[in-house]
Write a structure and sequence with these properties.
By secondary structure, the chain is an alpha/beta fold. Helices cover about 20% and strands about 35% of the residues.
């Protein structure tokens, strides 16, 4: 039972103050005038003013409430470093027993709740140890006047200190790890997100040493790997930032890994590496289009290439061959002499793709120039041959040195009949033509694609490469081939322009040529034999694209050194897939026979391992503010005791939890201290007494 006097004024405070002040002034005036009843007059006024304040006696019947304490156990990534897991288990068991012991005190009952911290999967893992968020969430369901305190078992590396709640009780830290820890880490200070293919990008890195390093300083070799292949080793002085150039040799995603060898005695090697993903892009795609003669499809090629702002097109059209004798004087012609030698000899290596559109041998390009194109292909260039009727005759491009790299020989037949181009069985698995029927204007019927017909086919005898599209009777229509470092494609028809004109609904010419051009330029997204890993929100999706029908035999090496052999399922022709949990973070290495790949899951060194040293420095401001303390577990598990609110909550060998003396009110009784009849009686007696004294 609790008793106290409470007030419920009948007038505003300012009005009561004015009345009281007036009564004091009148009493003083009466005393100055030597009136004998001034004291009784003052007493009467005081009784009236006091009655206006509404005094009452408040009696509460209270029931005590149990205080709440939180035991926060940090089991995030950095707590997996030995001997921390054993220390956590020992501290948790001991503290749980001591919390149960002090919670059984009937005079100060205590309930405690366990909170476990673990790293989330996917992008959420980058937030590190979210101890304050977990504590805030736990406090949200508890009245603040019942919170006795919180005990955090951790290495002290908390990454959301700025979001710490306003604690009404002490926070204590039980430090895992040891006092003499030291570590070395690799830091990437600057790295670009993209780079131009064929150029280099600059990066800045630094090696740092943390803690009590036994032999500080010196130089550390940094190994640089691109897509799993070591390309350089750079000596790096500890504590200094150096800049170095990284060549971007191919388009698409380039996964760059920087590593330093682990040192004896360092805390962990999880921060000895760094992953950087650089997207290789082409500045401008330079295309040389060689049209052998004007025809209906010539402008289609030109318009298609000019519509892409990323393409620099050089169009070389033979309008008047040298052997033409029509009697027209040369000075009357407005044709411009084309820089043939400059293009086909001096600057041919500057082009990413060369297209021969219905080209015929007419003496415009001498034999050495065509031989130079063969060298261009063998050293990594790309050529597309779109054949016309001349390819089957004596003026065929096949009758030049270029035949050395062509994947088919002409049979001297030109088939002119309507037919629907189809995707071959191999083409259904090839990335250039796989799923191409989905872009047709009409759905397939009885296995026939829903695009328009073509009317001409140059009959070819395939000698190498992959036949991905077919004409009538299964004859080769589109052949793709690799020639040493370069690539070549042959389209055995000059009717592709019918699709762009919308004949019989048209067809996906733009999509087909886009894929074809990207495959010729060796873009990774269109490689037919490739192994890809993609981090998809906590899951690692592994994709194997292959032209073979055999199931892939995939081997996966995880960042922590384990080897997995997941079973892959065919999700579409030529595409196999497997899904694994994306844990742990780092660089995953993939292999299927001779085909290799890498997958970057988060950073190589997650935020948990950026600085894994155990220290109370991060939490010291909050510990001081809440009157809490830090205790290293190597000194033993401290005792627990209850302390009064506002007192220090940590001492030698002990940590305190506040006794909040919280309660709930079961019943309230209010008894007026100044009933109206009593106030009237006392005030009247004082006034009458003063009048009688003054009337004598």
């Amino acid at each position: 039972m609790s008793t106290e006097i409470v007030f419920a004024p009948l007038l505003p405070i300012w009005a009561l103050a004015a009345l009281g002040g007036a009564a004091v002034v009148l009493c003083l005036y009466a005393a100055w005038m030597r009136l004998s009843g001034w004291a009784l007059r003052g007493a009467g006024a005081l009784i009236l003013v006091a009655a206006l304040t509404g005094p009452s006696l408040k009696e509460e019947d209270r029931a005590p409430l149990t205080d709440i304490a939180f035991l926060i156990v940090d089991r995030t990534g950095s707590q997996s470093i030995a001997p921390r897991p054993d220390q956590i288990a020992e501290a948790e068991e001991t503290l749980a027993a001591r919390l149960d012991e002090i919670g059984a005190d009937p005079d100060a009952p205590l309930e405690w709740r366990r909170i476990e911290l673990r790293n989330s999967a996917g992008d959420a893992a980058e937030r590190g140890t979210q101890a304050m968020a977990a504590l805030t969430e736990a406090m949200a369901g508890v009245s603040r006047d019942r919170i006795a305190g919180a005990i955090l078992i951790s290495d002290g590396q908390v990454h959301d200190l700025a979001d710490a709640p306003e604690l009404p009780a002490p926070l204590h830290l039980i430090l895992t790890g040891t006092e003499r820890e030291w570590d070395r880490r690799l830091v990437v200070e600057r790295a670009p997100a993209f780079g131009i293919v064929g150029e280099s990008v600059q990066m800045s890195v630094r090696v740092e040493e943390l803690g009590r390093v036994p032999d500080p300083g010196g130089a550390v070799p940094v190994n640089v790997s691109i897509d799993g292949e070591v390309v350089a080793s750079i000596p790096l002085p500890v504590g200094e930032t150096i800049d170095f150039d990284v060549p971007i040799e191919r388009g698409g995603l380039n996964v760059l890994e920087l590593t330093i060898a682990p040192a004896d005695g360092e805390l962990t090697d999880r921060n000895n590496s760094a992953l950087v993903e650089i997207n290789g892009i082409r500045d401008r795609l330079r295309v040389l289009l060689v049209s052998g003669e004007p025809h209906a499809g010539g402008r289609t090629w030109r318009n298609l290439l000019k519509s892409d702002p990323a393409v620099d097109l050089v169009h070389f059209t033979i309008l008047r061959p040298p052997d033409k004798q029509d009697g027209v004087p040369v000075f009357e012609m407005s044709l411009i002499a084309f820089p043939v030698r400059e293009l086909f000899m001096e600057k041919i290596d500057e082009f990413d793709l060369i297209i021969f559109d219905r080209y015929r041998k007419r003496g415009v390009l001498p034999t050495p120039y065509l031989a130079n194109i063969v060298r261009y292909v063998e050293e990594g260039g790309a050529v597309l041959v779109a054949s016309g009727p001349a390819f089957a005759g004596v003026e065929s491009l096949w009758r030049t040195p270029l035949s050395e790299v062509l994947p088919a020989d002409p049979t001297a037949r030109v088939i002119e009949q309507p037919y629907v181009p189809t995707i071959s069985e191999l083409g259904a698995r090839h990335p250039v033509t796989s799923g191409l029927t989905d872009f047709a204007p009409r759905p397939m019927e009885d296995g026939v694609p829903g695009w328009g017909r073509w009317f001409r086919l140059i009959d070819l005898a395939q000698t190498s490469g992959d036949r991905v599209m077919e004409g009538p009777d299964g004859r080769p229509l589109l052949i793709l081939d690799r020639v040493e470092e370069g690539r070549i494609a042959m389209l055995a028809s000059d009717n592709a322009w019918l699709w762009s004109r919308g004949y019989e609904g048209g067809g996906p010419q733009t999509e087909m040529l886009r894929r074809l051009a990207h495959w010729l330029m060796q873009e990774p997204e269109l490689e037919e034999e490739v192994l890809i890993g993609d981090d998809a929100g906590g899951e690692l999706v592994l994709t194997r694209r292959t032209l073979t029908e055999e199931p892939p035999q995939l081997e996966v090496q995880t960042p922590d050194g384990r080897t997995l052999t997941p079973e892959m399922n065919e999700v579409s022709p030529g595409e196999w897939e497997a899904v694994l949990p994306a844990d742990p973070q780092g660089l995953w290495r993939l292999r299927d026979g001779d085909v290799t790949g890498v997958a970057a899951v988060g950073p190589a060194a997650p935020r948990e391992f950026e600085n894994a040293l155990s220290t109370s420095d991060v939490l010291d401001p909050l510990l001081t503010e809440t009157r809490g303390g830090a205790w290293r577990i190597t000194d033993g598990v401290p005792d627990l005791r209850r302390v009064r609110e506002g007192r220090g909550a940590a001492g030698r060998g002990w940590l305190g939890l506040t006794d909040r003396e919280a309660y709930t009110v079961r019943e309230v009784r209010l008894s007026p201290l100044a009933p109206a009849w009593l106030v009237l009686l006392l005030a009247s007696a004082c006034i009458i007494g003063a009048w009688r004294l003054e009337s004598r």
